[in-house]
Write a structure and sequence with these properties.
Bound molecules: flavin mononucleotide
Radius of gyration: 20 Å
CATH topology of the largest domain: TIM Barrel
Shape: globular
Number of strands: 10
Order of helices and strands: EEEHEHHEHEHHEHEHEHEHHHHHH
CATH superfamily of the largest domain: Aldolase class I
CATH class of the largest domain: Alpha Beta
Length: 336
Amino acid sequence: MGAQALPPIRLGPIQIETPAILAPMSGITDIGMRRAAARFGAGLVVSEMVAASFYLAADEETRLRAEGEGLPIHVVQIAGRDPAAMAEAARLAEGAGAHAIDINMGCPAKRVVGGYAGSALMREPELAVALARETVAAVKIPVSAKMRLGWDASDINAPELARRLESEGVALVTVHGRTRQQFYKGQADWAAIRAVREAIAIPLVANGDCDGCASAQAMIAASGADAAMVGRAAVGRPWLVGEIGAALAGRDWLEPTNADKAEAALDHYASLLSTFGKAQGVRHARKHLAAYSDAAAASGAGLPRALRARLVTTTDADEAAALLARCWAEQAEEAA
Ligand SMILES: Cc1cc2nc3c(=O)[nH]c(=O)nc-3n(C[C@H](O)[C@H](O)[C@H](O)COP(=O)(O)O)c2cc1C
């Protein structure tokens, strides 16, 4: 490939062996998905965003989002705009076993921006810096931050904000190469992330539109980042993060067998059922079931069309498990 192999990176005192990270995705990176990615070699996985106020109110769904059982390195991402609440939520996560805290400064959702958290913080750098300061001071574990390039094209302030966060003790910064106003439109601008590289000495993670080893290499080359973060492309393919990490680290990658993939998908599905109960779990799992089936089809296995439709509509949790297992049958089944 010609690219230089990336060494392990550090998140404060934690060594991350493989320079590829599963992105936090609300409603997606549940504990089962994170365990699957970690099992196939992702260097790090990050929880779904946890709203500080909900977490402090002992909201059960929020507690589940922050679950980390079975993860080698457990990072809880927290969103909020009240420094005292952020600090308290970070302390709570630390007490519950988190190894690191990530502060969300990138989520464009109105629900978050409407509460003036997430990427809205990029328009209020003083507050963003105060949040980081209080959070860092509240815990012994390292604190990272995830941001966008800026609010819009006329205000690209990620380099300056990252520099200020570093001076407050933030240990690692991730930049998604889009502005808030782009939401998910257009292409992530990996080259624009390089200005952040030049502004900070702490590890930098690049993110946005990385969907395989070649794009990860290109993202790293353009941005100068130390690691790649992968989100949407890993849905239905949690092993992709490990594969990308191996490529970036210059290590050989052994593609998991169909049996390994089926086992991982079934474990993930079982974790959703045990978290939400069978009736709710089978519904909650649908986006994952669809993604697993489609990823299997893309790799030459997969279900006939009628069974794929059944997989994502059945309310019978056991039937869904049986269909999920069939996604990686040795031969692609005849398309119906
Ligand atoms: C469904 C969905 C949920 C997301 N939730 C979060 C979140 O909770 N916290 C966060 O920092 N980013 C969140 N993101 C943004 C991703 O972490 C990532 O920055 C973005 O998807 C770009 O990376 P990708 O092109 O590899 O998917 C979410 C993205 C998606 C698609």
